[in-house]
Design brief:
Layout: H1 6-19, H2 21-30, H3 38-50, E1 54-57, H4 64-74, E2 79-83, H5 90-94, E3 95-100, E4 105-110, E5 117-121, H6 128-140, E6 142-145, E7 148-151, E8 157-162, H7 175-178, E9 183-186, H8 192-203, H9 216-228, H10 233-247, E10 261-263, H11 267-283, H12 291-302, E11 307-308, H13 310-314, H14 319-329
Parallel strand pairs: 1-8, 1-9, 2-5, 5-8
Antiparallel strand pairs: 3-4, 6-7, 10-11
């Protein structure tokens, strides 16, 4: 294995600082219309830079749609918003074949999935077959209509939202399908001062317009740079210790969690935690990962990948509590 010297890391750090310069420009542009929600915007960028998808949970009116639309506008990319409803069909999502009477043949009509940024609004309102069609497109980055296969455009980011306060008539995503989302981000209400600014902005006579300040090619180049961000073996071990502590808590000094965890995080969790930590370091303009990067993104990577038992629910212990306990116990390098 090739060793990395201090001078190598310094050179890499300088290159990453140059490569990541567009992040500040992007944040500044989106900041014209999005007030607050820094955590959500950072997670959107992490998903974009890591080629991963995001599940967003929050009550209505927290700028979920506006955030991804603004990101799309600032990157000069195609945006599709799909409202998931109980009567939606897979063909409404991916497209279908239409018979052409004049030519006596079928032609393909592509669906709204053929865009760079997809907002799957209230994904848990659509039945399982529609959810599966979306998740297959997310995983394979391609769609098959009839006997033809079509590649989806790059970059391709799916932001699926679900409403935590209305569960009547919904079809919750199974755990195995939840695992396909890189991050599950829970967003909360803005502060009083942020909401005052939001109110003033919406009452103003003029509205700010988002300009395209970044091209898709810059994003694709940045993805390659993210993969080059240096991660020390000690950080790799730290990530694995966190994941394995969720599977075998008693072996990591967390015996009290043994009866509270139904199942631990999958191997996708360790892959995505490493990728997300690299992307987080990148947007912080650093060429190397530190333990704080892992800790900052850990809840978003793991909250939908750990199952808690009925005993935990009876004791009002949540997945968030379990992850926090793991982070507080596992030794930081």
């Amino acid at each position: 294995m090739q060793t990395t010297t201090a001078s190598d890391i310094q050179a890499l750090n300088e290159r990453i600082q140059q490569e990541s310069s567009f992040v500040d420009v992007l944040n500044s542009e989106i900041g014209k219309v999005i007030i607050g929600q820094k955590n959500m915007l950072d997670r959107l960028l992490i998903g974009l830079l890591s080629n991963g998808h995001i599940l967003l949970e929050g009550v209505p009116g927290l700028a979920k749609t506006l955030a991804i639309k603004s990101l799309s506008d600032s990157i000069r990319a195609k945006f599709s918003r799909i409202q998931f409803t109980p009567d939606l069909l897979p063909a409404d999502l991916i497209g279908t074949q239409i018979y052409n009477q004049k030519n006596e043949d079928f032609r393909v009509r592509k669906g709204p999935i053929f865009a760079n940024f997809i907002l799957a609004d209230e994904i848990n309102r659509a039945p399982a077959k529609v959810q599966s069609a979306l998740l297959e497109a997310m995983q394979e980055r391609q769609v098959t209509i009839g006997d033809e296969t079509f590649e989806l455009p790059e970059p391709f980011l799916v932001l699926a939202t679900q409403n935590p306060i209305e569960q009547e008539g919904t079809y919750p995503l199974p755990e195995a399908q939840l695992d396909r989302f890189m991050l599950k981000v829970v967003i909360t209400y803005p502060s009083a001062e942020e909401e005052r600014l939001i109110m003033r902005q919406n009452l103003a006579q003029t509205s700010n317009k988002i300009n395209a300040v970044v091209t898709p090619s810059i994003v694709l180049s940045a993805r390659n740079a993210v993969k080059e961000v240096y991660m020390d073996e000690k950080i790799e071990k730290y990530i694995l210790d966190i994941i394995f502590a969720s599977r075998f808590p008693a072996e990591h000094g967390l015996g009290k969690l043994k009866d509270l965890i139904g199942y631990g995080a999958s191997p996708r969790a360790s892959i995505n935690l490493a990728l997300a930590a690299k992307a987080y370091a990148f947007i912080k303009r650093r060429g190397y990962v530190i333990p704080e990067d892992v800790r900052a993104i850990c809840h978003d990577v793991m909250r939908h990948r750990i199952g808690i038992t009925y005993e935990a629910e009876a004791e009002n212990v949540t997945t968030e509590d379990v992850i926090s306990e793991i982070l507080n116990t596992v030794e930081v390098p």
